Amino acid sequence: MKITEHIANAKGRTLFSFELLPPLKGSSLQGIFNAIDPLMEFKPPFIDVTSSREDNAYKERGNGLLEKVTYRKRPGTVAVCAAIQHKYKVDTVPHLICGGFTKEETEYALIDLQFLGIDNVLVLRGDARKGDAGFIPTPGGHCYATDLLKQVTNMNEGIYLHEDQPSAYKTDFCIGVAAYPEKHFEAPNLKTDFKYLKQKIDGGANFIVTQMFFDNSKYKEFVTQCHENGINVPIIPGLKPITNLKQLVSLPKIFHIDIPEDLGDAIQACKNDNAVREVGIEWMINQCKELMEFGAPVLHFYTMGNAEPTKRIASALF
Ligand code: FAD
Fold first, then answer.
1. Checking CA distances to 10, which of 4, 57, 214, 299 falls within 20 to 30 Å?
2. Beta strand spans in 180-289 (E)
């Protein structure tokens, strides 16, 4: 079922969903199932599975020589989605990214998804490779999420690559895109970022999932600005509790977000990571309660494979 249908069927009730990373190459799926099992009691209507492009790594080859190798550490997004859908009878949302995939490979992945009965995709540009100064498009691939979105909406119209005529066999994907209540870090200003977000919505995106944030006023302002810009699709807040002291620095650095002063002070006053986790979970529960009152359609948790904090938060809310 489509995400938009799940939201419509909920009739204003806030839903719970979460996101996982595919296992590292050479690991089994059991870790994924272990991360899902404790959260199924909260009846998520859908589960997202991220996608990652290849990264650069340097391998010692003896004599002090380093060889540059480029490979994907977490392949398997489509297969993980299919396995979850099969085992738990829950919808999955594979992330599709521009980086690391040619248009042909993307088309093949979309055909696989259609045949597997996966109805939703989240289309993204994707992160830059480690060691690259910025995002470098893959030759033969897409540069921006808008371009990838166009490929998916084309397939929804029966338009496949390299075919002369549209096909009668059309895909029917419900398409999500990313947005940043605190601005995407490369955008020169929020207004420009909104211009491109609006392009994604006008280009056929059906829902938005936001970057994580810790200050609800950022989300509320963002929703208001979306409405003022004629963006009226569901806006799903992305959420992640802080669970250790290091994240006070790493989350703003990696995700380009602010941590409110009160939360930062409370974390810095903690004696150890157990205490930090308690503060982070408590903050997130309060944040979620307010978001539910505000009418957020779904609370979407970036679990990063660690179910326990999300379970505690969901237990307090659902
Ligand atoms: P875009 O919408 O393409 O925007 C990228 C930047 O370019 C923005 O600054 C935008 O303002 C600008 N821009 C957009 N269109 C144009 C245009 N036509 N011309 C000029 N400038 C333009 N990364 C992964 O690698 N894998 C994942 O699974 C993943 N999942 C994510 C899930 C969510 C909910 C979020 C919020 C992010 C996720 N990311 C993931 C990270 C994301 O890929 C990065 O933040 C990336 O830098 C931007 O992706 P985007 O889809 O927002 O890009």
1. 214
2. 207-212, 235-239
> Mutate which of 50, 184, 251 to test ligand 1's pocket (most atoms within 8 Å of Cβ)?
184
Atom 48 in ligand 1: residue holding the nearest Cα: 125
Q: What is the pLDDT of residues 9-55, one digit of tens each?
A: 999 999 999 999 999 999 999 999 999 999 999 999 999 999 999 99
Q: Quick check: 305 pLDDT over 90? A: no
* pTM beyond cutoff 0.90: yes
Domain boundaries, the chain: 3-317
Task: Judge: domain 3-317, CATH 3.20.20.220.
Answer: yes
The mean predicted confidence, pLDDT, of the chain is: 97
- The rounded distance, in Å, linking the Cα atoms of 299 and 314 is 9
Q: Do 298 and 8 form a contact (C-beta atoms < 8 A)?
A: no
Instruction: Please give the Cα distance from 284 to 276 (Å, whole number).
Output: 12
- Residue 289 CA to ligand 1 center (angstroms) comes to 28
What residue owns the CA closest to ligand 1's atom 30?
Answer: 50
Amino acid 106: pLDDT: 98
